[in-house]
Prior knowledge:
This protein is an alpha+beta fold and 986 residues long. It has 4 domains: 2-190 and 401-589, Alpha-Beta Barrel (Anaerobic Ribonucleotide-triphosphate Reductase Large Chain), CATH 3.20.70; 201-398, Anaerobic Ribonucleotide-triphosphate Reductase Large Chain, CATH 3.20.70; 608-668, no CATH class; 764-882 and 899-910 and 918-932, no CATH class.
Amino acid sequence: MQQNSKGIATEQTATNGQTPLSETASMEEIALKFDPYFCPAETDPFSTVEWEKRTASIKDEKGEILFEQKDCDIPKEWSSLATNVVVSKYFYGEPNTGERETSIKQVIHRVARTISDWGIEDGYFASTDDGENFYRELSWLCLHQHGAFNSPVWFNVGLYHQYGVKGARGNYNFNVKTETIQRPDTPYEFPQGSACFIQAVEDNMEDIMRLATSEAMLFKFGSGTGTDLSTIRSSKEKMTGGGTPSGPLSFMRVYDQIAAVVKSGGKTRRAAKMQSLKDWHPDILDFIQCKTIEENKARTLIESGKYESNFNGEAYSSVMFQNANLSVRLSDEFMSATLNDGKWQTRWVTDANQPGPEYDAKFVMNEISKGTWYCGDPGVQFESIINKWHTCKNSGPINASNPCSEYMFLDDTACNLASINLKKMMKEDETFDVERFRNACRIFITAQEILIDHASYPTPAIAENSHLFRPLGLGFANVGSLLMSMGIPYDSEEGRGMAGAFSALMTGQAYLTSSHIARNLGAFKEYRKNEEPMLEVIGMHRDSVEEINPTCPVYLKTAARHVWNECLESGRKYGYRNAQASVLAPTGTIAFMMDCDTTGIEPDIALVKYKQLAGGGMMKIVNRTVPQTLKKVGYDQPTIDGILDYIDKQDTIEGAPGLKEEHLPVFDCAFKAANGVRSISWQAHVKMMGAAQPFLSGAISKTVNMPEDSTIEDIEAAYTEGWKLGLKALAIYRDGSKGSQPLNTSQESDDNDKAAPSGQPVRRHMPDTRHSLTHKFSVGGHEGYITVGLFVDGAPGELFVTMAKEGSTIGGLMDCIGTQTSMCLQYGVPLEALVQKFSHMRFEPSGWTGNKDIPNAKSVVDYIFRWLAMEFIEGFREANAPRRGPTPQEGDSADSIETPESVKQKLNSMLSGNLNGNSLQSQNGSANGRKTAMLSEADLESPAIRSEQFAQFQIDAPACDNCGAITVRNGNCYLCHNCGNSMGCS
């Protein structure tokens, strides 16, 4: 018997404690057989698509090229976005060199060939022919966008075996022949294939600093890691040699700053990092409140007007805990105490019998919810539920998760991910093809399993435990689009039933394949120790099939029942090769590779999207699923055409001619349309997670969106509902809950309506319905719109400025100018004072305008305020507009026209004292309605158009660090729809 670095015993018997196979059984009888299913027999998979030469190009918000590669061989059916993402991220080699990959074929062949060769070498297949069939099947699936591995596989696998790339010495791998950990001299011979890592930390300075080092190395290579800090003694306890410990929060500061330093010099926008603390820890309240306190500091700095509000600005860089997701690990006992108004007793880390501070459980839950409401952290992980479904209870508890919270397993382990595109599993009769899906799952889970012992890992402990437990994370994407195409609302019992059935089929097939591999190569090393709890969990999965909603099609539920019965029966005979098999990851970048309309288990974002064109530019399109769905639910073509035309013009399906009210829920999306009122409720998000969770080894990374006006009580209700539904983790994001764009909450609005104390400025509020004036302008070829809202007396009271085709930076600055001017006007600052300050400011863009009154502008700001003066300041036009002809009106004379000097003197005389206009607060999306109305062109020239749309959905979404486009929240991370940049485990 051998022990690993964590003290876990490992059996070295030939059968790992399983029922021995007959000594006469041949390899052909027990190893995996792969017959042609997707790719026709003896056919080159790359000949099954039509190819074309393309230029892959990614532009920033100004339309400037960030990346470009010409003459790339791309399947004709792949979109421009899929092309740009794969070429820019996954093609190996320096651009414009001979080593650079030039074809999708090279990338897929590099990965599929290497994995297949490893499988043949290691005896996974019944014969070499089966191995070759496996290669063709895997290549075909990836080529036809049916599935994809997580990004590290595309980055690293095959570089050594196909191109001879060696790399610099770094990671560790488990040598199967010598049963030892080694650090290879040729790292790409053992490529890193995992994106998800969990690491432990012990309560001593040496290990605390060891974790800091290993985290830094993971961040350096763009990976994420999670750690539970409950092992570190609290600040309420005592040191062995006297004194008071500093507690886990003090070391969280160290870890946070290391992550900040590495990200600032590295390639990721922010380090992907999860930190958790258990509910019994004495410092739990400090942990819950820490990010709220720091967020408040950042907002104070921003509101001072001296610091910019973006996430990478000085305000956020100067406060703590901004580089990690935080989660509180809650037990069933705590949740019960919360519901029953009970007390919650914490305990010491070093002595479980020594009580720590006692709190009202409901108060602690309220603090968690308050933090989530205020800044998005902490989330929650349900400790008791997680360990109830733990397959390896006898090897230790599950303490932590990866940053996105979908991978949950033992400390010091890793998981490689892959996802299946559900939309590709539809038959021509629009039913779900169960056998097709099962075959795809079988192929991908086999490929993932082959990778484990041929991959390298960042620490020796992770390398060893990956070999001992072999956890995997198969998942799926595009369920939201699939349900809509079938005419099934995301928020419906039938939709949840189908999602549950898909999850059951996937995990059941994955574990069944794992058992078939164990029949040949043996179960995972720690299986014998954990046979009883693992079979118990497999039985729980099987029993949950009966709980799938009865509205689910019978054929899906029957198939799920069959695969789980077969899985449990096989496991009892042979065990399982893998301790875990499935998760639901956010599928960020790889969702683009598969041309998925929706990521992970998410619903669609919007019905109107902006498609990248092969030659550059954008095209506004109605979601391609919509016409298919309208036909599915029974509309004729003229009615469909009318509805599509309405959506194109109004950016919403609500109110479309001929659309029946009962069909509106089918088209509900995650975000409310600019001109609509409907969106998917948070309850629907949580219920969808509850439908899938019983059939997953791990958990679900998903965005539970809440509107800005959600309350703390709403968030607490969501957490409670998630626990009742058996979720393992839940992260909620209330729109606007980050100060990276200053908030304008209902509470602030209420405050504004209160009478101001004597001597303080009083705000004059605009009427709800008011007249406005809109003016189109052009400065140096840069077009835009000025809209002025008027008070009842006709005086200007608000300003919106929209640049037609500029990036988010210019648009944001114009929003700031508009908001600043509006607030000044409503608080009584004379327009004359603003004109004096902002007219004739000189910066680009500048130039000719086409306006005969202002033929040349020194800047956009110069034009805006001179135009305002022309319209609203009496005498300004006459004094400043160029002379255009002799014709004074009757009663006028040249002497009555004031000179610029006289106007300047008049303005100065009007201004008594200094007007302080420095306390400015920017608001994002002031002119969202007009921005949307402007997007009626079919062919648009800049990715900024899509950013404007996403900014409408999320008022505080950050910009992509790679290309500057506005990102979309995806799981616990953010995803860029312009360049494919992802902070998730994909």
